[in-house]
Amino acid sequence: MHTRYAYVVGLVVALAAAARWRALTRDSPIDPHPTQLPIPPPPTGVYAPNAHLHKLHRLADGALPNPEDLVVSSDGRFLYAACSDGWIKQIHLSSGHVRNWTLVPGSGRPLGLALGLHGEVLACEPSLGLLNITEGKVTTLSDDVCGMKFKFADALDVSREDGSIYFTDASTKFGYGESNLDVLEGRPNGRLLKYDPSTGTTTVLATGLHFPNGVAVSKDNSFLVVCETSKVRCGRLWLKGSQKGILESFIDNLPGYPDNIHRTERGTFWIGLVSGRSLLIETVMNFPFVKHLFATQQGMKFLDVASRMAKVLEVSDQGEPLRYMEDPNGKAIGFVTCALEHENHLYLGGLASDFVGRLSLEQI
Fold first, then answer.
1. Weakest mean pLDDT among 233-247, 267-281, 298-312, 327-341
2. What backbone torsions phi and psi does residue 167 show, to the nearest 5 degrees?
3. Which end of the chain has less neighbouring CB within 10 Å, N or C?
4. Residue pair 101/135 in contact by the 8 Å Cβ criterion
5. Rounded-to-integer distance, Cα 81 and Cα 342, Å
6. Is the Cβ–Cβ distance between 359 and 53 less than 8 Å?
7. CB 81 within 8 A of CB 349
8. Does residue 17 form part of some domain?
């Protein structure tokens, strides 16, 4: 009798679990694939723990909602910030005065910024695409490629030789408000694109990228670096020479998830690491069932608060780590998305800030 009872209970539990699994996978917005990442690098050497970012000064405090990316004007007097209220805001670097410069139309959310050859501001907006922005005017340069509209135009940079614009479409499946879902899914939904201003055409340079985010062209214009956020790595795509068109590793196993990347006048690169690494989370991300659970509203909240530290990394033009700075507890700034060097200061934007962090590199 007890054996039969145990069998019935076991059968009911198994059927309930199977039904729960079917319901979970049916309603889940993702088609998950195991995300296998290397063990995070040890906190030694260049990656030794520090609190350098505690020394930053808040520029335009309270006036810049979630400045995702930054660019300095051609005359060096102003900083432009892509803010979550849809405005490109202009900050006077000497006085700190802020003004609403240009509003991206509709419910637009400007993300990546770059300066064009003629001093114009260029921006990526997830669904609107690649934009040319002058004061009070927004012109669309490209909003599709091969007949496919962009879902997540993200970041960009410009060749100083011919004005070609290189930019990322972070995901062809998920839009801006669903970025965590793309990372959770773990599939290569992103691509790298090129806009030719002389012809007005957009071409695909690379597909099969894992949430491609920031992009930066090298000082000699021979290659570009593209950040793959969900793979904690950056790749190098050769633009010239015998290796032209080849995408290879630039730096792997970063101590955080890379977002935007900016080149310095020296030819090095600053990478904003939007969050730190969690061995626990990265372990469970190997299991699609857990990913389905994380894809729920509650699970997404768990991911959002998993790491609020701030990290930035400078690497050489060969991908060697040079300088690493962090705010280990998010006391001064958190969720840093970009680090831009100008006149021996580092300017930081982030998703949890209403200011730009300004850090004197002479103090480090």
1. 298-312
2. -150, 165
3. N
4. yes
5. 14
6. yes
7. yes
8. no
Length of the chain in terms of residues written: 364
142 found inside a domain: yes
Does 58 map to a domain?
yes
For position 19, what pLDDT does the model report?
A: 43
Residues 302-351: pLDDT tens digits?
Answer: 555 445 789 999 999 999 999 999 999 999 999 999 999 999 999 999 99
Q: Among 125, 179, 127, which residue's Cα sits nearest to residue 151? A: 127
How far, in Å, CA of 1 to CA of 142, rounded?
A: 72
Say yes or no to pLDDT of 208 above 50. yes
Enumerate the β-bridge partners of residue 313.
271, 324
Q: Which three-class secondary structure string do you get for 308-342?
A: CCEEEEEECCCCCEEEEEEECCCCCCCCEEEEEEE
Within its chain, how far is the Cα of 315 from the centroid? 17
Position 37 in a domain: no
Which residue's entry shows tokens 């790298």?
192
Domain that holds residue 101: 45-363
pLDDT at 309: 84
What CA–CA distance (Å, rounded) separates 98 from 357?
A: 14
Burial class (CB in 10 A: 0-12, 13-18, 19+), 58: middle
* Cα dihedral 77, 58, 66, 143 in deg (nearest 10): 20
Domain count, the chain: 1
